[in-house]
Design brief:
Chain A: Its main location: endoplasmic reticulum. Chain A: Keywords: Endoplasmic reticulum, Membrane, Signal, Transmembrane, Transmembrane helix. The complex is a heterodimer of chains A (600) and B (783). Chain A has 600 residues and is an alpha+beta fold. Chain A is built from 8 helices and 32 strands. Chain A folds into 3 domains: 27-133 and 143-211, tricorn interacting facor f3 domain (Immunoglobulin-like, Sandwich); 218-428, Immunoglobulin-like, CATH 2.60.40.1730; 460-599, Four Helix Bundle (Hemerythrin (Met), subunit A), CATH 1.20.120. Helix content of chain A is 30%, strand content 38%. In chain A, α5 (460-499) runs antiparallel to α6, α5 (460-499) runs parallel beside α7 and α6 runs antiparallel to α7 (537-567). The radius of gyration of chain A is 47 Å and the shape is elongated. The termini of chain A are far apart. Chain B is globular and about 95 Å long. Chain B has 783 residues and is mostly helical. Chain B contains 35 helices and 11 strands. Classes of the chains: A alpha+beta (600), B mainly alpha (783). At the A-B interface, α3, β22, β25, α5 and α8 of A face α2, α27 and β10 of B.
Chain lengths: 600, 783
Amino acid sequence: MTRQSPLLATCLLLVAALNLEVSANGLVNEEVKRTVDLSTHLAKITAEIVLSNQGHSAVQSFILAVEEDLTPHLAYIGASVKGDEEEDGTLELQQTTIPGQSGHFYKVQLPSSLAAGAQLKAKVEMTFSHVLRPFPTHVTQAERQLVVFQGNHYLYSPYPTRSQTTRVRLASKTVESYTKLGNPSKNDEIIEYGPFRDVAPFSEDTMKIHYENNTPFLTISSITRTIEVSHWGNIAVEETIDLRHTGAVLKGPFSRYDYQRQSDSGISSVKSFKTILPASAQDVYYRDEIGNISTSHLQVLDDSVEVEVRPRFPLFGGWKTHYIIGYNLPSYEYLYTLGDQYALKMRLVDHVYDDQVIDFLTVKIILPEGARNIHVDTPYKIDRMPNQLHYTYLDTFGRPVLVATKNNLVEHHIQDVVVHYNFNKILMLQEPLLVVGAFYILFFTVIIYVRLDFAITKDPAAEVRMKVASITEQVLTLVNKRLGLYRHMDEVVNRYKQSRDTGALNSGRKTLEADHRALTNEISSLQARLKAEGSDLADKVGEVQKLDGQVKELVCRSCQEAERLVAGKVKKEAYIESEKTLTGKRQELVSRIDSLLDAL
Amino acid sequence: MKSSPNKGVLLQYWLSGALGGWGGTSDGKHKASTNAGGSVHGNSRPGAAGGGGGKVGLSGGLTQPAGWQSLLSFSILFLACLAGFSSRLFAVIRFESIIHEFDPWFNYRSTHHLTTNGFYEFLNWFDERAWYPLGRIVGGTVYPGLMVTAGLIHYVLNLLHITVHIRDVCVFLAPVFSGLTAISTFLLTRELWNQGAGLLAACFIAIVPGYISRSVAGSFDNEGIAIFALQFTYYLWVKSVKTGSVFWTIGCCLSYFYMVSAWGGYVFIINLIPLHVFVLLLMQRYSRRVYIAYSTFYIVGLVLSMQIPFVGFQPIRTSEHMAAAGVFALLQAYAFLQYLKDRLTRQEFQTLFFLGVSLAAGMVFLTVIYLTYTGLYVRLLTCYAKIHIPIIASVSEHQPTTWVSFFFDLHILVCTFPAGLWFCIKNINDERVFVALYAISAVYFAGVMVRLMLTLTPVVCMLSAVAFSSVFEHYMGDDTKREKPPEKAEEGLGPNIKSIVTMLMLMLLMMFAVHCTWVTSNAYSSPSVVLASYNHDGTRNILDDFREAYYWLRQNTDEHARVMSWWDYGYQIAGMANRTTLVDNNTWNNSHIALVGKAMSSNESAAYQIMRSLDVDYVLIIFGGVIGYSGDDINKFLWMVRIAEGEHPKDIRESDYFTPQGEFRVDKAGSPTLLNCLMYKMSYYRFGEMQVRRGALTPPGFDRTRNAEIGNKDIKFKHLEEAFTSEHWLVRIYKVKKLDNREPLDHKLRSVVPKQKYTSKKVPLMLGGEFALQVWRDSFRFS
């Protein structure tokens, strides 16, 4: 205490002289319980403060202070009021300055004013990153990692403190040295300081602890989180992560043999860690520039998806790696809509590993093409960059990309961001229509190309060939039709044999005659055209015609035979006999026609 | 039955139509195949046998034979392309979309450079990360066709906002081009024989292992696109010889230009086409068409091929291209004589002829003398000496082909293609002369070098398709039609024999398909960057040691660190680790490689001298002793010694590395030179303490690859230190220490480190299961 008195005196002087506001409040820290948790690579300092108003008027706010040395490392600060029953009430913080005092100051707005003489229990949480310095800075594979923490024995506060204790939680029992202010007690991993009584405002006293800490000193030196929203039901998330082991740097060789055989070899190195993804995450991938990282495992739990991220190689002090992890989410869980208005509620930054430290975060939110009136609600202050445009499948004028960056983040920053925007649902049709249009144009061009003749010179031979081919085609159909007529006639004859209705037969015969004549005429005209083209196929068609005449005759004969049978002029056996020969002849003729047609 | 053809009928269409062939060849001999087209129609036409109702239901296009035919050919060709594409995806499905092997990594790296920096930057690229300290002028020493193709596809896709990564373009380029190869093979075979044979050839080339071996997804190499270019050039050549049109010839030249830009194998084209013309002249088959085609091709092709920086003036300088020039001159002379023949009398012509011949002889004589002076002749002769340089001999794909690999790569086709060749020779015409020459020369080259199996494969597919097609045509025509005129019953072949032969042929084809799939899946679909082993229960272990070590280099060494390794890994280190290498797979500088080989085979202090002089920061080696990987550096070591001996015969002698009995042994009986050389020490550093397989009766330090207990277990380094070793010890990286300035003190300090206690053993190095490593691929590159 005696060591402290000059400082105390100056502090008191300063307070009295310069900071009327603070002293005018008349706030006093009645009792402070500080816990300094140094068991990970972060320093988490929590203080439970009983604040009493000993002034004359009620106060609306109080002030939190952070020491000058620690301010660059402050990742998170938060305060809450501890009610009697409800453990609640996160308070709003606002940065402020106190002239003449070093450090950062935050003004905490109280939910209800604190009357004169009243008391209040507040809880303050601060997290500092990169405050544990490895010492020695380089270790070999077999050595353990020792770190030094430098902090303050007291609560740094603009108010006088009546009584306070500080409890330090370490990562291991092994402690090289620690400051012995007030004769602290050490019990395993815990060092207890205090209680200190009547500490002046702004008092500082260096607490220095040098101890063994083998927890992974992993730091995300930069992370780019890209969230791509699609209105077709998917949200794609991709995180590009640069990871570094910021503990004591590996000195000398890395021996795989020792690493595999001895459990304490490379004890501070990082083999793997767990990343927790949302429960609905699908299609998770984990890769880097040279491909998939095959050493990872995925476990789907009820409320989350756990990825065991194992870098390609164990990370020793000073080693770094780089990887990409990505997954898809169904949009219905994160995208809310009312008419044309949409709201996307996603985590601004997500869990990578426990007690994570992110040095630099870039968030990119890619909204659908045509999103307008974009408005972002962030849970904490974040630097917005100018919007960009992103082009991907079937985009025409680009998707708006919101870009934001922030330094020094920890787990407390895993909070939701809400993006409001308007989107005209008609625009959903744009992409399918684009595809349809493209295919339409493609097919249309093909049709045009196939149908039209683009040749500069005319090839008369080819033209003739094509003409002949088309005529032949027509001949083929006509001949087939004609053969069909005969079959039809057969049916008529058969029916006639049963019904003995001469009228039907005659009318059938008449239609046959008529149709046949028409068809034959048509074929002969085609034949004439073939001849005109100079094709030798005309002769073949002529032959077909000739053969067809014979077939026709046979059909007529069989018709007559049938008539005679019905009239009783021939016996049934004789009729069957003659019918057989007729059919045989006809078959032969038809097959000859067939072979001729095939040759066409 | 006729109105709605059931499956059986459809099958019959398919078989009789597709296999029997229906294409209208101009050749009179093949009227039968033209008829087969009619037979399809005959089947589909109602009333041919006098039964059933009309067939009006089917749409107009399909009632016509041409409609059916084009639909069928289109779908068969499409399916062949699809099969060709998808059967190459084994590696992507089993592993991932990754670049395979060695050379593709360089191609990928340069394509990446092209896409990020633009075309001109690529052409002017001086790669200071290769061949330290010499560097490499990449733009002038590569065939840029592959990179430009991939870059162009990537560019067009990105222009359409299809955001595909360049890696995926590169990985899938070879399968896509295999599909295109199927189409170009179809076109070429159709020109040579008929459409049916073309379709069969397309199906064959799509799945034949001899081609798949160079074009699986991820094998981003020149050959992948070059075979397409080769086939397409030949198609256009045949087309131009057939038509004698400048249009087709110019197309042929452009395709040839693409081929030149893609692969050094273009020399095959520029020799085969002149050979074709020459043989046509000999066979008295000279025509105006040939004259037009070859004259245009030679001039335009020559000018175009000289536009590729790497080729430059070679086409008018080197011996490989002289044949083309000679044939060009000969053809002009021949054409001129033909012209004169029409103008002059017989007597005049004879005098002129003799005059011309003697003049030509004198010219040839003078040229030979000139060539001898300029040393070209010497070079021509000494190019055979290349074979005896160890660095060329060390590459396994430069070995002569064995019969087994012929069968392995081509299966039944190797037996049927002589039949196809015979069919072609029997019904010879201009273009069949070409395919016969193609076949004969390709067979010769394939016999010389395993690698040139690739040029043989397409012609084998084409000729086998001709053979199969002819057989099917013969035995599988429309039975009913053929049988009706009894006098045409072919040599008394009954339907039984026909169906037996058909069934046999189909069986062969089926076995071929099965073999192809098996070979593709087992032999040619390993990325070789990622290894896989299978446990007894069938689960798979992935051994990702290469990428582990390369990525460590990439992330945790200085950006300009120089890594020494054997040349096999040069491209991979440059591609995956992005670090400077001393030697790589380009192997253009033998003495540099020999220096690296010398460093590897010297003792540590001598090696340190070399490494200091080469500014080496890290040394990377491959060591397979822990898992039994046979393609490691100790197995390649003798080649390093040989190559080093070639340049430094005073310092390195191969015999020093053998035991007095002439064996190469790593155990106690091994030669002391071997047991103390840098490579040995780096491979086995601290391996002597390691129990590879617990429980088994193996001593510590038992090398599973060579099945021997190592001879030198007490390995200490003075100038190196272990920087990284991958999980299964496959890749070991050593750091070359800087010069000490306090030598004695340094040693004292180092001995202060307390001895390790071996009480708690954490990770037993039990590598479960037998490692059925796919050493097949590695044997391709044991150098």
